[in-house]
Amino acid sequence: MIALPDEKKGSRAKADAMNQTDSAASQPSLLLHADRLKQLYAALLRGRASGKVRRGREAILAAAALELGPDDHLLPRKANEVAGRIEHSPAGIGDDESFSDTSRLALATGLALGLKKRQQPGIVTVLVSEAEPDGELSHVFSFAAQSKLPIIYLLDSADIRRPKRKLHRGTLPVIFVEGSDAVAILRVIQECARRARQGHGPALIECSRPTSDPLKFMEEYLRKREMWSEDWRQSLAMTVKTKAARETKKKAK
């Protein structure tokens, strides 16, 4: 069981609390090496260049997309938000723009139930907003927790402070993360994905409204760890720009 961190600690401390769960054997999967961190930055850059992702929301989507495996399913709020940022094709990306968050939650939870019933590999990740009534959220979360479904709920919170909502406590692990910090979000998603794949059930990751630009936040993170190269950034930016132009031209035909 994940031990929830103290409310007064920062988002990085909350994310790091995930590193202490279950067993010491889980630790290697949480170590983000230089290549992985650069992949995360590249995903952020592709999201910004695509113009399809709401500014400031790139960290949530980049981290979610980066953790996808070939048997996994991702249900974003809009399918085109993850276009161009995934290196391989997952089992499915839901194109559910016409669905409400409640419908998307039900669809994702049903998909996770099907995977579990058929003993198929893969997990489900679903993005929702905090606009839905607590009662409806609680009902879905309780069912997923009781059934130990392989699903991660990513809640895009509009409140920069920790939400007052506490009804999810006791039904499934709830982790609060700063929405600007793509590294912390990815670490938490990795741990929640590991738990789900091992049959320990779902988790709810609640991301606050970004308090800074996720892309600049990530740049500073890499600089502090001496992983930054201006030549590398320029080369990556050129590659992303060229690929985006090629995709635009292809769609225009």
Rg over alpha carbons: 18 Å
Our measurement of the CA-to-CA distance between the termini, rounded to an integer number of angstroms, reads 52 Å
Count of helical segments? 8
Order of helices and strands: HHHEEHEHEEHEHH
Number of strands: 6
Q: What would the CATH topology be?
A: Rossmann fold
Query: Which architecture does the CATH hierarchy give at level 2?
Result: 3-Layer(aba) Sandwich
β content, as a range?
5-15%
Average pLDDT, rounded to a whole number, is 75
CATH superfamily: Thiamin diphosphate (ThDP)-binding fold, Pyr/PP domains
Short description:
Helices cover 45% and strands 10% of the residues. It has 253 residues and is α/β, with parallel strands linked by helices.
Description:
There is one protein chain. This protein is α/β, with parallel strands linked by helices and 253 residues long. It has a single domain (11-252), classed as Thiamin diphosphate (ThDP)-binding fold, Pyr/PP domains (Rossmann fold), CATH 3.40.50.970. It has helices at residues 11-16, 34-50, 58-66, 101-117, 134-147, 182-197, 214-224, 230-252; strands spanning 73-75, 92-93, 124-129, 151-156, 174-177, 203-207. The chain has a 6-stranded parallel beta sheet with strand order 2-1-3-4-6-5, sandwiched between helices. Helix 2 packs across helix 3 (58-66) and helix 3 runs parallel beside helix 6 (182-197). It is globular, with a radius of gyration of 18 Å. The termini are far apart.
